Amino acid sequence: MLRDLQWKLQEAKGFQKPKILLEQYNTSAELASNMMFLIDNEYNEIEDMSVADFGCGTGILAIAADLLGAGWDWMI
Question: Is residue 61 in a domain?
Fold first, then answer.
């Protein structure tokens, strides 16, 4: 399941030209999938839960939450 999640997240587009002054950094599919998979499997905190991605990035964590079965997810 972790491998499937990482594979799906690799299709998400990152910043084409990140602006360092705005601290725009791409979160890798590997990091996002490992982090979200751990949160879901160790702490049971994703599936059927409301999840918010409070960042100014690409929304990859919200995408991962959705793929892991979050009941409702926001990207703010």
Answer: yes
